[in-house]
Amino acid sequence: MSKLPRPDMTMSGPVVAAIAVVLGAGVTAGLDLALLWWVAVIIGVVVAFGFVAWAAPLIPDERGAGSGGATEEGTALHKTLVVPTALLLAVVSGLLSAWLLDLQLQEWAAALLGGAIGAALAFLLFHRLSAMLALSFAAVFAAGILAIAVTAAVLYFSGITPLATFERMLEYGTRPNSMVQIINDGVTYYLAAVAVAIGFKMKLFNIGVDGQYRLAALLAAAVGGYLVLPPVISQFVVIVTAVAVGGVWAGIAGYLKVARGVSEVISTIMLNSIATGITAYLLTEGRLAVEISTNNIGTPPIPESGWVPGIPATFLGSEREIFGLIFLAVAVGIGYWIMLNRTRFGFELRATGQSKTAAEASGVDVKKMVFLSMLFSGMVAGLVGLPQLLGSSHYYALDFPTGIGFIGIAIALLGRNHPVGIVFASLFWAFLNQAAGILPFDGIPQEIAVIAQATIVLTVVVVYEVVHRWGRRYEQQQIGRQLGQTTETTPEPAAVSHGPEHGSDEGDDSVPGRSKEDGTDDKSGGEAQ
Predict the structure, then answer these.
(1) What's the rounded Cα separation, in Å, for the pair 285 and 195?
(2) 499 and 430, same structural domain?
(3) What is the Cα–Cα distance from 418 to 201, expressed in whole angstroms?
(4) Phi first, then psi: what are they for 106, rounded to 5°?
(5) For the chain: N or C, fewer Cβ within 10 A?
(6) 22 within 8 A of 112, measured Cβ to Cβ
């Protein structure tokens, strides 16, 4: 693109973005008349991206910078990694947008909007995608390729055709009802992963999320079932109960950590076992449980006034409903990001996680931060079972979902503890679980999804760490080069000379005690000598 002639003028960023959107949508709409919609979207987004790259030098003050402040546009890493990654993300976003819109709109309209969305993201990603973030996407992409390769190898040596298996999983996983189930599962996984991530940011391993959410869901269900309250108040009481129980249960591990030095890993594992015993003790008839069916017991069903209405998924082509508490998960994610990046507590949490010694030297109460981190992690963990409780089952029974806390650990690692990364990791994990459900009907072991999940978590952790370290070194080198260039181009200050025009002789500078006016010795100057 740099070889194409450019006009001798400048263009504002919004103008370039608008032209790119119009170009992407127009090319997509024109090609959709002769080609498949997805091919038209790809070409439209690529053409828009090419225009953005061509017009980049015409935009003043629009050069991207890395996290360290180093300018990245024009560097070798930007050309070889950031630009291809931005193009790939823009194309994928355009395709996904068109595919989702096609569920509600006509094909041509969905393709046109998909091309426009991809073109808009092309501008944003080209100018705003940092090298470190591009390296993170590259690590996830490489890990996905490795996981697919390992899974394909297992299928192949088991006598199963890998391509047909993947095609079957993709077809089943993208059905309307499957997508609703993926979103609902993703909501619970997201809450569990955020609970784990809060501890990870403090270098704490809250492995007790599983026990915290199960105990919280049981007691919240009992409160909601036995107390008949008006709408809104009932939901509020149930949510507060779950948050309080989860926080108290995790707070025990936090107190043991700061007061007795007990490892949170050991204490939370033990508390998981205790929570299991308490749940089994309370979930019996005569205590908190009643008979639900012939082979099942549980807490009394929550009255309909205490339910959280679902969101009709007709826009996905399904008659099922999405959990209404998806908005609670969104609020938790936003709150988690604000806490980490916009509050003093979040700064101290991250600082303590980076170095406890440095945090103590800066006046941070490390023990207080450890306890509060475990407390907040448990409070979020208490919310994990509520989407299922208030949106579907409406009681806690023997068949209530278990093991979500351990899944949250894997998803937090996969999403790198970032609120947005955890969203994609949760949906991906839920997709694999749902898509694998069709495999037993084809005589294929369902555990193939477990192999893929385990492989991608391991590869993401390893590959991301390698790429992250290399990226940090590269960023430091770039900053060093820029500092060196700044030093070379900075002019040295001119030497001060006292010529005859200043009324002094050439030898005056060597006589610090002589006055410029009358040649007498300066008393203070002599004392200084």
Answers:
(1) 32
(2) no
(3) 10
(4) -70, 160
(5) C
(6) no
Q: Is residue 508 in a domain?
A: yes
Measure the CA–CA gap between 38 and 40, rounded to whole angstroms: 5
Is 471 inside a domain boundary?
Answer: no
Q: How, if at all, do strands 321-322 and 311-312 pair?
A: antiparallel
- Token pair 């499957």 in the structure block, residue: 178
The torsion angles phi and psi of 169, rounded to 5 degrees, stand at -65, -40
In a domain, 413, yes or no: yes
Q: Are 214 and 402 in contact (CB under 8 A)?
A: yes
**pLDDT in the model for residue 81:** 81
| Chain segment 193-250, per-residue pLDDT in tens | 999 999 999 889 999 999 999 999 999 999 999 998 999 999 999 999 999 999 999 9
Choice among 79-83, 86-90, 177-181 with the minimum mean pLDDT? 79-83
The domain in which residue 505 lies consists of 477-528
In a shared domain, residues 103 and 207: no
Characterize the bridge pairing of strands 321-322 and 296-298: unpaired
pLDDT digits (tens, 9 = 90+) for 443-498: 888 888 888 888 888 888 888 778 777 777 776 777 777 777 666 665 655 555 55
The pTM is what?
0.82
Band (pLDDT 50/70/90 cuts) for residue 400 is: very high
Domain count, the chain: 3
The confidence score (pLDDT) of residue 518 equals 47
- Cα gap 416→423, rounded to integer Å: 11
Say what angle helices 209-226 and 176-201 make with each other, to 10 degrees.
120
Query: Can you name the residues that pair with 421 across neighbouring β-strands?
Result: none
